[in-house]
Amino acid sequence: MLSHERIWHAIDALAERHQMSPSGLARRAGLDPTSFNKSKRQSADGRERWPSTESIAKVLDATGSTIGQFMEFLRPDGGKGYDSAETLAPSSAIPLLGFAQAGAGGFFDDGGFPAGQGWDVVDFPAAGTKTGVYALEIQGDSMQPLYRDGDVLIVEPGAQVRRGDRVVVKTTEGEVMAKVLMRQSARGIDLHSLNPEHPNRSFDLSEVEWIARIIWASQ
């Protein structure tokens, strides 16, 4: 039987599994960062507050998890069986590049997937079921305050992107940037800058070489 306590435990466990706090998980899912705070789990009069199914769907999408994996955390053992065959591989080495490398020729194919060899690698626990997932290391301060120099972004090329997603975009001119996708049409995209000191950008699709969704960040 589902209970208020187990549902919230599952969200806490999912955040911990992906090395985030509950507020970090909420932020990654595009929710108010306070959505999963313990103070929000009961109303002022003591009534239990439950997370919405929409919120749960968003955190699953943001972490690349399945509903089956989430249900593991609802088990009486608290999800200690998370290493079953259905779950993500414990660790997997994926390519790690800097943004400068990402802008250079020869490192990616036309779809934004890493091409060739010779990069550094990084272990990513949630990469087991993701084909083509790779990591980009932030360089500089253009993406502050959300991402800082040295942070690592895990991106998934080929994944469906939607309004509000954080994405990495490479232009045909070789420029690589992390932005928030605000609008996508048959003709172009509008991007919101993560750093208010840097301008928002708009591109015709003919100017975009590839776009990949950010699925995780080390922060």
Account of the protein in words:
The protein is 20% helix and 25% strand. The protein is built from 5 helices and 9 strands. Strand 7 and strand 8 (201-204) form a beta hairpin. The longest helix has 14 residues, at 4-17. Mean pLDDT is 77; it is low at 79-90.
Please outline what is shown here.
With 219 residues, this protein is an alpha+beta fold. The protein has 5 helices and 9 strands; from the N terminus they run ααααβαββββββββ.
Can you tag this structure with a few keywords?
Peptidase_S24_S26A/B/C; transcription regulation; 5 helices; globular; DNA binding; 434 Repressor (Amino-terminal Domain); LexA-like
What's the topology here?
Layout: H1 4-17, H2 22-28, H3 53-63, H4 67-72, E1 93-98, H5 99-103, E2 120-123, E3 134-137, E4 152-157, E5 166-171, E6 176-184, E7 188-193, E8 201-204, E9 208-217
Parallel strand pairs: 1-3
Antiparallel strand pairs: 1-2, 3-4, 4-9, 5-6, 5-9, 6-7, 7-8
